Q: What sequence folds into this?
């Protein structure tokens, strides 16, 4: 395989927005990249009329779409359909497609609940916090039906707390931590709760505070203070501080860029 | 035939125009100047602005007007245009390209008049040196004259020679065909070889401007004629020796009366080979090309490698529909000012773009690496780039690579690399 890949078509004027992550797709290659890296969130609704219209009308890939349409007539599994699409546009080579298949099969081997959790974690990792929270809350209702194990629920609550922290909802985050603690009590979660409490100022629930001994508290506090100092130093010497060393014109440009980036991150977080 | 097929040889000192004659199926010279002064239809490339009125004259008329002090003349229009020069006539400053435009329009007007305003079907210009500014000026003028871009073509003298030569009987170019051109602009030697056994056959024309060129004024006296004879003789001995030459063509105003002074030179030139004189050779060659463009299949199935045409292929190895392919970006034999391409592709795991450049007569190609220094670091294959290529001259490739990003996942930046690569 060569090191450059000729594009199949010019970029679309009107992109296709994916339902799962809200990503705008402009080319068939971007579609392949999206499938290859985000298959965890891609579900049956992904193969839609809109997607085919986009490929046919915007990218003029009529023959390719005809092949895909013909293939899905026999209603193959999602895994095979995605694989067929990837193979049709040839953005990835056979080795990479094989790797994709292995990853997909690994993902598929998990139970329904675990797949949901992985999907929620994926969304959280990629900044789609509200989407992730919705999925974590799904387990509140499905808990009985799915007969979930305590360690699984523990993970859900712990990750939910992280999602709340990302949204700045500290009280809700502490509540989620508390639920996690109730499911499973270990040093790792205790430390996490303690540090979060120090960071946010939200007091630890009484029952958790009682589990913390003085020696550990002293050690973890020292670690927290050290991390805080490091973070402060990093921030003050980082890119933000560097902006103020520039001249007035450049400084304005960089600040606008920085604010724009932050706005974008915010939008992504609340999407 | 519906419309005129015109060959327009535009030089710094003279211009020659030929038109395709259907009856004889040959290009014919249009004598637009005083036939006594210019036997081969030479029109001096000058413009003259008449004093105190907005009237322009060209060629010998222009000379005459200036001699009578009724106008102000500007000559060397090509040289002036190449330097983006200006001329001030009666307190008005004209750009050289404007003056050249006046000249071309006037000449085309005269041709049109001569043929009862018959429309122009195809117009082929031939220039001694293909210069971007002159090409732009010619195309602009032709457009103003109501000609579309595909009705106009511009070629170099070497290429016009090729079209002329390939329109002759095959024995004329069976082996090497040579050309000596002597004009007020100097002495030029061209050598044409057909490289058979290749597909398509390659016609290579090497042109050389000889330092021995002299002022045509010396041909006006016996002593000068003797000197000219000696010069041409020694050039012919040097350039034609130890070569199998099928024909020698003499062209240009300087050789018009070579039979009267070339006592020593002609026997050397005509030694066991065909030799002939062709005054408006380049204009005729241009007409042959004009005629050829009307054919469905070209009568000249050759790849021409000469001044004005690229001598190298430029390509890039890439994956096309999953298969490893060599994608040609610029083809040898293309006129440099028409060469260019634009390509959009994805970069896999490289931080450079590697181009293959292969000279037409060499087996090995060389690789030119263009580093994408200021491009953002992204995951594998998440960078789409637009590569634009053009040739500012026959020996130079201009390359521009722009970052197109990867949709909204990795937005485009203003990262861009521009390089000039000698071919």
A:
């Amino acid at each position: 395989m060569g090191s450059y890949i000729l594009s199949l078509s010019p970029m679309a004027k009107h992109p296709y927005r994916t339902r799962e992550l809200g990503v705008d797709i402009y080319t068939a290659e971007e579609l392949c990249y999206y499938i290859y890296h985000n298959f965890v969130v891609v579900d049956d609704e992904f193969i839609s009329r809109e997607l085919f219209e986009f490929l046919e009308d915007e990218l003029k890939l009529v023959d390719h779409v005809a092949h895909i349409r013909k293939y899905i007539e026999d209603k193959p599994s999602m895994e095979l359909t995605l694989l067929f699409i990837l193979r049709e546009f040839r953005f990835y080579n056979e080795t990479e497609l094989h790797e994709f298949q292995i990853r997909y099969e690994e993902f598929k081997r998990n139970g329904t609940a675990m797949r949901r959790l992985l999907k929620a974690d994926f969304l959280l990792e990629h900044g789609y916090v509200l989407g992730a929270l919705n999925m974590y809350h799904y387990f509140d209702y499905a808990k009985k039906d799915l007969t979930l194990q305590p360690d699984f629920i523990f993970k859900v609550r712990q990750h939910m707390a992280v999602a709340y922290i990302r949204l700045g909802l500290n009280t809700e985050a502490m509540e989620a931590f508390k639920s996690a603690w109730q499911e499973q009590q270990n040093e790792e979660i205790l430390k996490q709760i303690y540090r979060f409490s120090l960071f946010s100022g939200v007091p630890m629930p009484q029952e958790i505070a009682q589990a913390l001994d003085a020696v550990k508290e002293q050690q973890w506090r020292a670690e927290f203070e050290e991390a805080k100092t490091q973070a402060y130093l990093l921030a003050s010497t980082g890119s933000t501080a560097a902006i103020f060393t520039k001249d007035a014109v450049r400084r304005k440009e960089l600040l606008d860029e920085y604010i724009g980036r932050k706005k974008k991150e915010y939008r992504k977080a609340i999407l | 035939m519906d419309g005129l097929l015109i060959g327009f040889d535009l030089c710094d000192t003279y211009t020659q125009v030929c038109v395709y004659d259907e009856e004889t199926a040959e290009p014919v010279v249009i004598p637009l100047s005083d036939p006594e002064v210019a036997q081969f239809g030479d029109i001096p490339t000058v413009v003259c602005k008449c004093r105190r009125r907005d009237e322009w004259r060209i060629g010998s008329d222009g000379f005459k007007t200036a001699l009578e002090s009724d106008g102000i003349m500007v000559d060397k229009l090509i040289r002036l245009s190449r330097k983006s020069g200006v001329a001030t006539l009666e307190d008005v400053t004209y750009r050289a390209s404007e003056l050249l435009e006046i000249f071309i329009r006037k000449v085309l007007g005269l041709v049109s008049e001569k043929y009862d305003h018959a429309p122009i079907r195809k117009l082929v210009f031939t220039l001694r040196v293909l210069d971007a500014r002159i090409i732009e000026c010619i195309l602009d003028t032709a457009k103003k004259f109501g000609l579309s871009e595909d009705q106009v073509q511009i070629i170099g003298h070497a290429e016009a020679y090729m079209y002329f030569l390939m329109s002759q009987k095959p024995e004329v170019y069976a082996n090497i065909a040579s050309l000596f051109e002597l004009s007020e602009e100097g002495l030029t030697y061209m050598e044409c070889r057909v490289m058979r056994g290749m597909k398509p056959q390659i016609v290579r024309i090497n042109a050389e401007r000889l330092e021995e060129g002299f002022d045509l004024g010396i041909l006006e006296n016996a002593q000068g004629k003797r000197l000219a004879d000696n010069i041409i003789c020694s050039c012919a001995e040097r350039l034609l020796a130890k070569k199998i030459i099928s024909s020698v063509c003499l062209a240009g105003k300087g050789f018009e009366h070579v039979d009267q002074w070339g006592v020593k030179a002609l026997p050397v030139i005509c030694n066991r080979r065909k030799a002939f004189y062709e005054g408006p050779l380049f204009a005729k060659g241009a007409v042959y090309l004009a005629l050829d463009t009307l054919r469905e299949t070209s009568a000249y199935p050759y790849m021409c490698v000469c001044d004005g045409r690229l001598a190298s292929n430029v390509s890039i190895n890439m994956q096309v529909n999953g298969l490893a392919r060599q994608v040609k970006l610029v083809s040898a034999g293309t006129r440099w000012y028409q060469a260019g391409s634009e390509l959009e592709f994805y970069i896999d795991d490289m931080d450079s773009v590697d181009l293959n450049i292969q000279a037409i007569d060499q087996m090995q190609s060389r690789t030119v690496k263009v580093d994408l220094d200021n491009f953002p670091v992204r995951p594998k294959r998440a960078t789409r780039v637009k590569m634009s290529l053009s040739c500012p001259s026959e020996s130079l490739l201009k390359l521009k690579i722009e970052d197109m990003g990867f949709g909204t996942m990795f937005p485009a930046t203003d990262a861009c690399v521009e390089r000039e690569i000698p071919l």
